[in-house]
Protein: histidine kinase
Amino acid sequence: MTGHRLKLPPLARSLSARLLILTVAFVMLSEVLIYAPSIGRFRVSFLEGRLAAGHLAILALEATDDKMVTKDLEQELLDHVNAYSVALTKPEDSIKLMLMVDKPGEVDAAFDLRRGTFFGLIGDAFMSLWHTDNRVLRVVGVSPKDPGTLVDVVLDEAPMRAAMWDYSQRILALSFGIAFFTAALVYLSLHWLMVRPMRRITGSMVEFRSAPEDATISLPHSDRGDEIGIAQRELTSMQEGLRSALQQKTRLAALGTAVTKINHDLRNILATAVLVSDRLTGSDDPEVRRVTPTLLRAIDRAVNLCAQTLNFTREGPPVLDLSHFDLRDLVQDVGEELPEPADGSSVWLNRLEAGTDVEADRDQLFRVLANLGHNAIQAGATEVAVTARQSGDRFVIVVQDNGPGLPPRAREKLFQPFEGSARVDGTGLGLAIARDLMRAHGGDIELENSDADGTCFCLILPMTQSRPKLTTNGRAAA
Structure:
């Protein structure tokens, strides 16, 4: 462990604070949406209460023979209703009764509760809240005591508005209480389910970045089946894969350093061995002449292995010297470098048309084609045909042989260095280097098929290269 601690953001910018604020805001928004119809209903209930009180007050008139009461009693009844006047109508009996001591002033607004709509009642309620002056209202509606009776009441708006404001304050206090209580529950739940795991994942990422090869830095196993659990397991898997790749790169870098140090001396030793072996070819001993070619081939393989290993372990992508050239001529040159069978037959079949122009690094493409040719011949192929085709904005070079095909193990790790060789004495670097060279061109190398009838590789090149060419001094041209 590196001891590096994750620096968390301040509370105001933390995910927890944002979740808390959003939860409170959303709950308050919900309360507002609930409050609007609630205040509309409260206003209707208040007015219906006045209608019911007015109906009860009118009953005092019905109890008398002449439907009349004294002025004092009439004023007392109106004070009980808190209205200027009350009128009662029974359409089926054609009866109309009224309580009114003094004629009320001009009516500012009239409302018929029988014709109220949902949004209209809400709008009337907010209109009552926004008015600061007292208005005289006339309210008509069906008596809550008798559906067949209409009650007409004239009253002041101020008492109703005061009751509505008192109701709103209680609703506001309750809403804040519900909002913060709900926010606290949601915050704790989200903090437990999301924030804490995300902090662990973030902390693991920061620690992994500081020491990617430290195997002790790893997230604990999670059995969660949700997205957080999947993300944690995928992150763990990715870290393990990346750690393994970095360890392999470290080993390759160490190998490259070692090979670089011994390459010069080893080449001198092998050069001396080559000189001595060349002298053996002139020996009079037939047995010496028989084994000398085998010895020379073994030395050549040793030199080639040293060169391949050194080139592969060099850092950075291959440097390309791009040019336009005839691909047919290049393939012809490759064929001349390949070994020929004892019967003198042609193994390397150049089936390209003259004038097949490509833009690439000629020497590097030569290496790739020569590597594929050598591999096919060493595998036992008697024919290796080279063709080409255009596929959209890509140029594809096809190398098809009639060998026995690649074994399954070689196909699984075909382009992995030191892993993808199909021969016992192979290094597995040839195809890995070929892939690096093709990708440096902006293309790739793919195994199209490999079975008992042979193996087919496709070399893919873009039709137009965007990489810089080299000048005569070895620097990239502008």
